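seq as requested:
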Amino acid sequence: MAALHVARQAVCEAGWRAEDLKEAALVLGTSRGNAAGWLGPWPGRRPFKLMAASNTIHSEPASAITIEFGITGPSHVLASGCAAGLDAIGIAMLLVNSGLAPRALAVAVDLPLVPILLDNYASSGLLAKGNSLDPYHPDTTGFIPAEGAAAMAIEPGEGIFPRVIHYGCNSDASDPVGMAADGGRTPELLKMAIQRHGIPSAVSPHATGTAVQALAEPAALRQLVGVGSSCKPSIHLLKPFIGHTIGASGLLESVILARFLKDQQLPPNLPFLSAPEDFNLPNEVLDATGLIYKLSHGMGGHNALLVLSAP
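struct tokens:
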């Protein structure tokens, strides 16, 4: 099971023991749980009869993880669409910062590669018509779906690992499928983070490749710094490398960013991608010199923002 696999990796890298995990919190993000396992059973997706009932509910991956590790602290499952993974990190951070848990495990998983789910995306006009992704190209047609899982161990204090220092979310209440074309309330999230922590040196947007996001995200980013400003963050797009893993995407991409930040670096972009007006998409590894903002957006206009910093 993908969620269990990445949870084991995160726990191992954090060096957590059984006694550390007992009172830990678990926050799992997913758009549809194990739906793929019963909509289109594949080998390795726990198709045996014992799991037939639990495989049909979103909370099954979280239950499996708590049982595996003996986690008896708070356990939550978030299904905020494509923002679920980023929300999982944010809520896990809030649980630790508030003292409700001494540490937290954030996990995200999504397995959308079954015909009925892909047909639904295609009928809504959300899938790319080609095999490459250029999210801000004027002719972009949609996203390239992928499956994925990721996990992040979160605990208070500083150390050798990157830090999660801020989380915010809001809703546009404007569209059942995408974000508002003018950026909606995303600029409010960005401005609040700037007021508290400062202008980022880099931003990793959601950048799915749908036509509305190709307009909406640049609009939001321009409001972040103002047109003509000489202080613009670099933009780092990860879905051209890994595809869109739906509810897992925010956490998976944050894990990739965190791994680069651990080495005081920022990831490159694929060459020849279209840059939003007034912004730069560097195609080489950069030194991480400040904060990095990570954005995710769920269908229906749910916006989420995470602020990361190098150790």
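The chain has a mean pLDDT of 90.
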